[in-house]
Each structure stands twice: as C-alpha cells, then as structure tokens.
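Entry 14. Structure prediction run on the chain below.
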Amino acid sequence: MKTAISIPDDVFLAAEDHARREGLSRSDLYARALRMYLARIDQAEVTRRLNEVYDSESSDLDPVLKAHQARIVGADEW
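Output returned:
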C-alpha cells in the first residue's frame, strides 16, 4: 500500500540515516517501526486489562497449589 505522510524534518533525516546504515529501504524501515509500535501498544493494552482484573480479583495462588510448588522446588515457603 502506498501512502503519503508528513513527519518532522529531524525525524525524517534520522530515519534516512538509520535506513542507510542498516541497508534498509525507507519502506522497510517504516514498516518495521510501525510493527514494533503496534506490538508494544497491544502489549500495553493486555497489561491494562490484566491490571483492571487484578484490581478487583486476587492474584494469590491457591494455598494447596502454592504448597505443592514449594515442595517441588525444595523451598519451605514462598
């Protein structure tokens, strides 16, 4: 997909320099950057939703499971 965007000159020049040093085309650089940004946003959304759940629900392990885990790893108590 072709698109036209506007970005600040300093960002454009830094991106051009980075792409040249890494041997990437401008398209490859921008596509990689967007993928990384979108993955980070997705992770942040998952974290936000988990935080909402654990604000109202306990995250403590069941005491029986906790005891079994401690026994398996040789710890007296966690």
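The chain has one domain: 9-73.
Filed with the rest of this week's runs.
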